[in-house]
Structures are given as C-alpha cells and as structure tokens.
Amino acid sequence: YSLARKKSEQVPEKIIQLSDLMRHIIYDSDVDLISLEKEIDMVKNYIELQNLRTTEKDKIKLDIIGEIKDKRVAPLIFLPFVENSFKHGLKGGANNIFVKITFEVSGKVLNFEIENSKGKTSEITDLKYKGIGVENVKKRLDLIYPDLHSLKISNAEKTFKVLLQIQLK
C-alpha cells in the first residue's frame, strides 16, 4: 500500500509476489503433499515482502543445502516459524537482529532450522495470538508425520530457534 502511495516502480513486482503468496496459501496448499521447491519459493516470497518493511535485509540469511527437486512435504509447515521470526526477531526491537533459515535435504531426511534474535512484542499481540501457529504446526506434524519427525524449540533469552527434522515419504 505504501509503495502504491509513493508511486513506486516496485508496485507491479510486489503485487505479483503477494499474489503468488496468496495463491499458494489458498489454492496450492489444498493437497496432502506439495513440492518442497514450491514451499521454499513461498518462503522466499514472504521474505521479499517482509524486506519492504525492514532495513535489515543483510541480516536475513536463507540457505538451501542438498537436492530439493522431486521432494514433497506437507504444505504450510514452515511459514508459521518464518512469520514468527520476523514478528519477534526483526520487528521486536531486538539488538543485533538476525534471521537464519536453513533447509537441508540429505537423502530422505529434511532438516529445517530457523533461528532469530528475540526482541519484545506488545502484550496485546502476545495475548491475542500467542502460539496459535506453532501449536497448529505441532498438531499437523503429529497427524501427517507420526513417528517421522522431531521438533525442538529453544526459547533462550535473546534467541529463538526451531529444529525440525522430517523423514520424507
């Protein structure tokens, strides 16, 4: 919206990115399994859109290790963790802010790791939306990947870290 008000030349590109993100969430994710490439593209689009709101682009790191082609995962497993990293890390007023995201595929094992600096959010935001996305992901993982995943969440004083390992089907 602010880009449109400024008559920025980025508006068409960003509308396409937003459209791709929304299409993925509404239509593409209505399946049991989806291409890992598509899920990673959605994360990239989300990061690009969030980059409009921060001057800390160089503090966001995304690494993709291993062969992701022809791998399939449950849709929308990673996005809640990525959203939280921006909400609590980059937007939370932390010092030395960063977000590090890694997707690593080794054979039939997918390791997803995300770590971010941790700042403070408003009490209203915390009370209204506390942990809904993460709790939903936990339930979905239990249903879709019973005994085929491990999820470790570390909530330290200045950092938040998620380690998710999935045995791909």
Number of helical elements? 6
Pattern of helices and strands: HHEHEEHEEHHEE
Strand order, biggest sheet? 2-4-5-7-6
Helix content: 40-55%
Largest sheet: 5 strands, mixed
Overall pLDDT, averaged?
Answer: 84
The overall strand count is 7
Give the oligomeric state.
Answer: single chain
Low-pLDDT segments, ≥5 res: none
Report the principal-axis shape: globular
Going by helix content, strand content and strand pairing, the class is alpha+beta
The Cα radius of gyration reads 16 Å
| First-residue to last-residue Cα separation | 41 Å
How much strand content do the residues show? Answer: 25-35%
In brief, what are we looking at here?
This protein has 169 residues and is α+β, with helices and mostly antiparallel strands. The protein is 41% helix and 25% strand.
Question: Could you explain how this protein is built, in words?
Answer:
The chain has 169 residues and is an alpha+beta fold. Helix content is 41%, strand content 25%. It has helices at residues 2-5, 11-28, 36-51, 79-90, 123-129, 132-144, and strands at 34-35, 60-65, 72-73, 99-106, 109-117, 149-155, 159-167. It has a 5-stranded mixed sheet with strand order 2-4-5-7-6, covered by helices on one side. It has a two-stranded antiparallel ribbon with strand order 1-3. The longest helix has 18 residues, at 11-28.
